[in-house]
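Reagents: none. Just compute today. Aminoglycoside phosphotransferase domain-containing protein.
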Amino acid sequence: MSEITFYNEPKLSEHEVDQKFNERRMTLVPHVKDFISNHERFKDKDVSVTFADKGVSSLISIIETSDEKLVLRIPLSLTHTLGDAQFLKVWEQAGVRVPHVFEDGILNGHQYILMEFIDAKTLTETYHKGETINREIYVELGKILRVMHEPEAKGYGRSLDNKNIKAEFHQFKDWLDSPEMQKRIEYARENNLLGEEHGSLSLAFEILITHINDNKKSSYCHNDFGTSNTFATNPLTIFDPSPGFNDGYIDLGRSIMRTIANDGGLSRAGEQLIKGYFKEKPYNKRALQASILLNAYMKFPYGHKVKNFEQIKNVQEYLVKTKHLLEK
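Predicted 3D structure written out:
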């Protein structure tokens, strides 16, 4: 008779804002066991399960048998991460190295993905901050992100369907005006996280709407692209997206904002991302600056709730120094 052995328990977040996810994480554990017990792939096999100690937004189970090692990833959000598997497949077809998806479906109301295990550390774990700059790894990341944005999508915002690719909004402006976006903007302003000294948000909206109307192309966006979600393989392996549909500038701006937040305001990483993405060709600097400002409004509320004050400060200082880029 086959046996399933769990070597640890899921790691829980200490932040109050993540308590809902903690509850969902623990609720899903018996469903992981049932999934393995009833899956034809693991029939008559002894299985060991280890829960990864990273990833606030997903329950990640590393499943190992005598002949293979797989990852079962279950996003904890019931809406924000629909379409993970489809996005990974689109990028794989475009030539980007991602964990191969063996199957996907619904488990206790949550999307799940059973996929390839990548036996490697992330770039964050492999290199210190100076090394990633000196090796020009961010240039390579910029090139990869460009390829990820090449397949054409339709619409803007989150994916609404796990199987059929469907965007939340038809128009970019509808995404900007959505209640969720307005709630984040209001939080940032009420808590004095962002203001006119960091750049005019109304001007940023105007710039982005004009850019999107001229560009008329939506892409499959990662929305969490960076060294912590890239395995140090050759070629690099991209994983763990927060999938959404948008103009490529929005996704690139978020990645630049992330590097500024995490690397102590180090702008060279952002410069390398830009170099790789645009291949040293001219680009719309105003639209990119508007994207960085917009992404700060989008990300600061959560960062503030989990007390990432230093990261917020890094971005605030960067925006003050560069807000002139919004102006003509």
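The domain at 123-326 is CATH 3.90.1200.10 (Aminoglycoside 3'-phosphotransferase; Chain: A, domain 2).
Action item: order primers for follow-up constructs.
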